[in-house]
Design brief:
It is an enzyme of class 2 (transferase). With about 400 residues, the chain is of the alpha+beta class. The protein folds into 3 domains: about 190 residues, no CATH class; about 90 residues; about 120 residues, Histidine kinase-like ATPase, C-terminal domain (Heat Shock Protein 90). The strands form 2 sheets. A 5-stranded mixed sheet has the order 3-4-5-7-6, with helices on one face. Strands 1-2 form a two-stranded antiparallel ribbon. Helix 3 packs across helix 6. It is elongated. The two termini are about 60 Å apart.
């Protein structure tokens, strides 16, 4: 019983408060228009922020009535008028706020009036039954719509019947009506399943980009440590072994053979370490950057290569490494399989993507199923959500176009 009373009280109060707020909400859209006309472009973002606070207050009230937890939506504006307008146009929450205003007016007014009628009728019935004598005889109190009250018996009987009817309706209907309105409010201001999925995909993309950046930075650090530390020590060991071999007398026998094997093993280890470093994170990227590294790999491609570099801006380590390896693998494929006499490498930045284009004048007819190296290029691009387009008709030319997302 107490739980029901609490639901009835909270539901009735929720709807009664919603009635004047729905009346106020009727003025919001005209205020947005008038405020923008009077104050210019600077007013609308501020007014929309005020609307966000207004809708969030209703959203919190509805969630509290339903007993659910909600995540607060951002209410702050970015700095700068341009950033504010971009936020205003791109943020789907703003459109959701505008739709909620219309819904709140359409549903809040009748729901609030229904609550007011039920509660007011119940209170009026009790009060009027006790004060029926104050009404003039020519205009007596009428209860149940049309029955005149002419005595205490009629007043108490009709007052009890009318008050009980209104109270019963309030008891039964108000909690349901309030919860229906609250669910409508939450649904109007909550992201849809598609919006939540898109947001989650964006969060995962940002998370993966951060992981790839961290991975690239870690590979760069390991490369520097191996290059400056381990490789330098191997070089020193190899030099000392070489000096030791020179100092040994000619009749050293087994000792000389052991030193020779150790010396050759150290040199082989250095060669293998250089290959590991080169495939892990090219040192030339750290030394010259992407533009210098691409120019260097094109110069050693084995066929004449022309490099065209646009303004690339700042790129993450993962994107730079992927672009470098893609260019290197494509040039290697062209030199080995295409029979080309010339190749062109073009790197440009288009909005939030790095475009890598490698074109040769070879025989064409690239077949990815034969292990031409394109599969490896596709895998490198796919790791960054990139795309690869290969155009290689029989007779040539062959064009490999790779687009790598690189939004900052």
């Amino acid at each position: 019983m107490k739980e029901r009373q609490r639901h009835v009280g909270h539901g009735s109060w929720y709807l009664l408060v919603g009635l004047p707020t729905a009346m106020v909400s009727m003025l919001i859209l005209p205020l947005l228009v008038v405020g923008t006309i009077i104050s210019g472009l600077t007013a609308l973002p501020v007014l929309m922020r005020a609307l966000r606070h207004w809708s969030e207050w209703h959203r919190r009230r509805a969630a509290a009535l339903l007993g659910i937890d909600i995540r607060p939506r951002p209410t702050e504006l970015p700095k700068g008028l341009g950033a504010q307008w971009r936020h205003l146009l791109d943020d789907t929450e703003n459109r959701r706020d505008l739709r909620w205003v219309l819904r709140h007016v359409v549903t809040g007014l009748p729901a609030g009036l229904a609550a007011l009628a039920c509660v007011a009728t119940a209170v009026f019935s009790v009060a009027a039954a006790l004060l029926w004598q104050l009404f003039p005889q020519e205009e007596p109190l009428r209860l149940l719509g049309a029955v005149p009250v002419d005595g205490w018996g009629t007043a108490l009987a009709l007052g009890v019947v009318q008050g009980a009817g209104a109270g019963s309706l309030t008891w039964w209907a108000m909690p349901h009506l309030a919860r229906m309105h609250a669910r409508s409010t939450v649904a109007a201001l909550e992201p849809s399943a598609e919006d939540r999925l898109a947001k989650r995909v964006g969060e995962l993309a940002d998370s993966r980009a951060g992981v790839l950046d961290a991975h690239g930075a870690e590979l760069s650090r390991i490369e520097r440590d191996l290059h400056d530390g381990t490789q330098a020590r191997l070089v020193a060991i190899a030099m000392r072994l070489g000096l030791a071999r020179e100092e040994l007398p000619d009749d050293s026998g087994a000792l000389a053979k052991l030193l020779q094997e150790a010396h050759e093993g150290a040199e082989e280890a250095m060669t293998e370490l250089r290959e590991v470093i080169r495939t892990m994170y090219p040192p030339i990227l750290a030394d010259r950057g992407l533009q210098g590294a691409v120019s260097a790999v094109a110069a050693g491609a084995g066929i004449p290569a022309e490099v065209e570099l646009g303004e690339l801006g700042r790129l993450s380590a993962a994107v730079e490494a992927a672009a470098y390896f893609i260019v290197a693998e494509t040039l290697t494929n062209a030199a080995k399989h295409s029979g080309a006499t010339r190749v062109t490498v073009r790197l440009t930045r288009q909005d939030a993507a790095l475009l890598v284009e490698v074109t040769d004048d070879g025989l064409g007819g690239v077949d990815e199923t034969l292990g031409t190296g394109v599969i490896g290029i596709r895998r490198r691009a796919a790791a960054l959500d990139g795309t690869v387009l290969v155009s290689s008709p029989a007779g040539g030319p062959t064009a490999v176009t790779v687009e790598l997302p690189c939004a900052s």
